[in-house]
Amino acid sequence: xxxxxxxxxxxxxxxxxxxxxxxxxxxxxxxxxxxxxxxxxxxxxxxxxxxxxxxxxxxxxxxxxxxxxxxxxxxxxxxxxxxxxxxxxxxxxxxxxxxxxxxxxxxxxxxxxxxxxxxxxxxxxxxxxxxxxxxxxxxxxxxxxxxxxxxxxxxxxxxxxxxxxxxxxxxxxxxxxxxxxxxxxxxxxxxxxxxxxxxxxxxxxxxxxxxxxxxxxxxxxxxxxxxxxxxxxxxxxxxxxxxxxxxxx
Length: 249
Fold this sequence. Notes:
Blueprint: H1 2-13, E1 18-21, E2 24-25, H2 34-50, E3 56-59, E4 62-64, H3 69-75, E5 86-90, E6 96-97, H4 100-109, E7 113-117, H5 123-127, H6 129-138, E8 141-145, H7 146-149, H8 155-166, E9 172-174, H9 188-198, H10 200-205, H11 209-215, H12 240-245, E10 247-248
Parallel strand pairs: 1-3, 2-4, 4-5, 5-7, 7-8, 8-9
Antiparallel strand pairs: 6-10
Helix pairs in contact: 4-6
């Protein structure tokens, strides 16, 4: 609890007023139930209220991709962002399942809107930005991590974050906070960095009005001219082993 309150204190000092708690959820290895989530959020909110911090904690989850996603979300509204229509989706850092575009498009058609977590740190997406472009145009959101834009995950990740911003593919900048030490809840510096690239108004929206729409379940309009224009994705090869596992590379 002390660690969580310290994170909240840093967040408020940085100008953050609302935090969506998104614990990892991976069917088969790491799960939790809505009662556990509700108890934890209530306890933390009580502590930060006593501490006089002007911060609201909302429920959510960061769900590892699995083919049972539609059934999970239908039976578990606590896995969505603030129990709305958006859900935060995480892929493996080095591979994405085959036919992911078809799979997520069907979920979008059913009213479940994916927010793809930290695509800038996914090696597969760096080579298949055409898939990201298609998904954003269909209604998915891309959420990059503040630290990525500041170079804390390396120059390549920072460069790809900047490319995504320049091509109007990013809808949210998030803290992706894990602890008060090397992964604190900080956003202001990343918004300033984004403003140098895309302008102050657009950068601010990535940490204010767009996340506000998400927590209120309001569907954001697909951005105009989103995507890598006049470019083609580099060719890809698929090994027999990855095809066997159902992954493309």
